[in-house]
């Protein structure tokens, strides 16, 4: 009975739970029920040590999963140096006022696209020193308040813009020590507040795909203290050139991509100009044919017609008189 009344006090949480995958719902329901401690005592996951400021210290406890019993009182969740290998959908349900989440060094390999749902207030997320190889589209997009994100020290070989989405307040992003050869063109476009971008320790391939990043670095003179130390590892002629030294001229050989509107014009222009030239040829041809026919009639039939249709003064006309 008590657990039911505690759940009905959290309608938004219930709605979120219903939206999440069913297999996780039951576990999260019991977690939410357990989190409602007696009024007056700070709610704290059993495995952790909680401080009055809302910090739940669950560091270095060999935890295999996010501890149950997260509540709105937890403002900072320190989960670093544990064994959380995977984050299921709604992994942090109940902690919807969480501001800071530290998941460093967990051997984390897999983050469900809806793992961070409910963390709309989160400002700081540290996922560094894990084993992440890929991130699903939409993984970070619910984190609208996020200011700082670290993905340093993972195995990311690509990062889709859709994984980050638009994060209007993101100020610091660390991607250092990954396997990134380039950044996708739209990635930085969705991050208008970005000022500190850490990129060191990636095998940058200075081909056409790196053009957006190089021009971003030149437009943001001091994005990262190490900007000058970012070097190309490929192709041969650019090896060990700093990224910031690559001006637009270095990418002169790269074909400019056409905007969709330009493409539409190009595609429309082809058939239209073909039909127009066909029509012009037909019109010209028929005009020429008409002219020639008329001239032939004048030269060839002229004398005959004159003979058949004599004018006044001719012998035939005189004979008619
Ligand atoms: C968290 O707890 C661990 C011991 O389990 C301790 O070493 C560490 O300093 C604590 N961290 C903070 C920020 O209090």
Automatic annotation (TrEMBL):
Localization, UniProt: Cell membrane
Keywords for the protein's UniProt record, in alphabetical order: Cell membrane, Disulfide bond, Ion channel, Ion transport, Leucine-rich repeat, Membrane, Repeat, Signal, Transmembrane, Transmembrane helix, Transport
Going by the entry's taxonomy, the superkingdom of the source organism is recorded as Eukaryota
Q: Where are the transmembrane segments?
A: 264-288
Q: Which GO terms describe its molecular function?
A: potassium channel activator activity; transmembrane transporter binding; voltage-gated potassium channel activity
Membrane topology note: Single-pass membrane protein
Q: Which InterPro entries match?
A: Cys-rich_flank_reg_C, KCNMA1_auxiliary, Leu-rich_rpt, Leu-rich_rpt_typical-subtyp, LRR_dom_sf
Q: Write out the GO cellular component annotations.
A: voltage-gated potassium channel complex
SUPFAM superfamilies recorded for this chain? Answer: L domain-like
| Name of the protein in its database record | Leucine-rich repeat-containing protein 26
């Amino acid at each position: 009975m008590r657990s039911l009344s505690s759940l009905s006090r959290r309608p938004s949480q219930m709605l979120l739970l219903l939206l999440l995958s069913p297999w996780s719902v039951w576990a999260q329901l019991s977690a939410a029920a357990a989190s409602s401690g007696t009024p007056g005592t700070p709610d704290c996951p059993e495995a952790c040590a909680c401080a009055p400021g809302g910090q739940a210290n669950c560091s270095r406890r060999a935890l295999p999963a996010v501890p149950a019993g997260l509540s709105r009182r937890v403002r900072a969740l320190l989960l670093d140096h544990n064994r959380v290998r995977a984050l299921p959908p709604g992994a942090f349900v109940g902690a919807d006022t969480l501001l800071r989440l530290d998941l460093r060094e967990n051997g984390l390999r897999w983050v469900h696209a809806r793992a961070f749902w409910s963390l709309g207030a989160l400002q700081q997320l540290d996922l560094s020193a894990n084993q992440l190889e890929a991130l699903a589209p939409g993984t970070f997009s619910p984190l609208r308040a996020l200011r700082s994100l670290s993905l340093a020290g993972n195995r990311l070989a690509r990062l889709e813009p859709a994984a980050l989405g638009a994060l209007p307040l993101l100020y610091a992003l660390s991607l250092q020590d990954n396997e990134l050869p380039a950044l996708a063109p739209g990635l930085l476009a969705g991050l208008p507040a970005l000022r500190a971008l850490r990129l060191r320790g990636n095998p940058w391939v200075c081909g056409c795909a790196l053009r957006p990043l190089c021009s971003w670095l030149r437009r943001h003179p001091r994005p990262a203290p190490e900007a000058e130390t970012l070097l190309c590892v490929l192709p041969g002629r650019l090896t060990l050139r700093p990224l910031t030294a690559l001006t637009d001229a270095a990418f002169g050989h790269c074909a400019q991509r056409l905007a969709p509107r330009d493409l539409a014009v190009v595609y429309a222009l082809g058939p239209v100009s073909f039909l127009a030239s066909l029509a012009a040829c037909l019109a010209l041809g028929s005009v020429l044919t008409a002219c020639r026919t008329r001239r032939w009639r004048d030269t060839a039939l002229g004398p005959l017609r004159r003979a058949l249709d004599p004018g006044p003064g001719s012998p035939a006309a005189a004979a008619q008189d």
